[in-house]
Each structure stands twice: as structure tokens, then as C-alpha cells.
Amino acid sequence: MNWKPVIFIVTGLAAFGAQADEKELIAKGKTLFLTKICFTCHQTDPAVPAPAGLALKAPMFIGEFWGKEREVALGFGGKVVKVKMDEKYFIESVKMPMVKVVKGALVPMPPPPPPITDEDIAALMAYVKSLSKPQVN
Ligand code: HEC
């Protein structure tokens, strides 16, 4: 028997499954972004302002931001260093927002309303990451 087509189908299905999982995680993250009130401060759509975020100068999740460098203060008003937006920084930013405070923000981010689990943060991260796209223009 020729196993090639079988292997092809199995790996194809696995890739399809992984994609479906990722989609589900992003969808869950999108819901959490609303229910955990992230949207009130972090603008994700150029046409829909986030008033509280504008007042506090919270970073917007628009354009290509994932993997990019930003300047943060180590503690509010602390020493300024550069960090990259990656998974570790994202998780820390949500769990312990006081540790690294984006330069230019008027206040540090308040911790999100509990309960927030590691799974919730993973979903939020998948959603936020999916928003990062190169700017067209
Ligand atoms: C009351 C407003 C407010 C809410 C609500 C809020 N944030 Fe923030 N967030 C900020 C501000 C202000 C900063 C910048 C200051 C800082 O780093 O603490 C920030 C920074 C961040 C950063 C670092 C961004 C960067 O560009 O370096 C991430 C990631 C983040 N927030 C995720 C979230 C998520 C996820 C939620 C929802 C669970 C959320 N935030 C809810 C105000 C908010």
C-alpha cells in the first residue's frame, strides 16, 4: 500500500485543526477584550476611538506593533529601557502592569478586573497579536 496520500491527508487535517484552534482562541480573546474592558483604553479600529485610552495616552493596537520596540519606564517614573512587544512582555503587561510602563502614558495601566486566568491572557494575546498588520498607505 502507498502511504503517501494517507500521510498527506493526516498532516493536512492536523494543520487544519491547528488553524481552527487558533481561530477559536482569537475569537475568545476578542470577547475578553470587550468583557475585561481592554477596549475602553486600547483602540483597535482607526474609526472607533477609545476615549479613556486617549485621555491616558494608552497605546493603540493598530498597525504593525507586534515584535516592535517601545520605550518603557521600569516602574512609573523609573529608568527608561527598550523592550520588544513579544509574548513575555504582553503577559507581564497584563499581569503586572506597573513593572514596565510605556513611555508617554500619563498613568500606568490598572490591573484587569479579576478573575483573569492564564488561558484568558493567552486568548487576549492571540487576539491582540492578530490585530498587528503592516499599515497600508
Ligand atoms: C484604564 C485604561 C486601560 C485598560 C482598561 C487596559 N489598559 Fe492596557 N494599558 C493602559 C495604559 C495607560 C498603558 C500604558 C502604560 C503602561 O504600560 O502601564 C497600557 C499598556 C498595555 C500594554 C503594553 C502595550 C505596549 O504597547 O507596550 C498591553 C499589552 C496592554 N496594556 C494590554 C491590555 C489588556 C489585554 C487589557 C484588558 C485585559 C488592558 N490592557 C486594559 C491602559 C489600559
Count of structural domains: 1
Output the CATH class name: Mainly Alpha
Mean pLDDT: 93
Q: How many E-type strands?
A: 3
Order of helices and strands: HHEEHEH
- CA gyration radius, whole angstroms: 18 Å
In CATH, the topology is named Cytochrome Bc1 Complex, Chain D, domain 2
Helix content: 40-55%
- The CATH superfamily name is Cytochrome c-like domain
Kindly describe this structure.
There is one protein chain. The chain is mainly α. It has a single domain (4-131), classed as Cytochrome Bc1 Complex, Chain D, domain 2. It has four helices and three strands, in the order ααββαβα. It is elongated. The termini are far apart. The structure holds heme C. Heme C is lined by residues 36-38, 40-42, 52, 56, 58-59, 70, 85, 90, 93-94, 97, 101-102, 105, 107-110, 112, 124.
Task: Give me the secondary-structure topology.
Blueprint: H1 4-35, H2 51-56, E1 69-74, E2 80-84, H3 87-95, E3 100-102, H4 118-131
Antiparallel strand pairs: 1-2, 1-3
Residues 36-38, 40-42, 52, 56, 58-59, 70, 85, 90, 93-94, 97, 101-102, 105, 107-110, 112, 124 line the site of heme C (HEC).
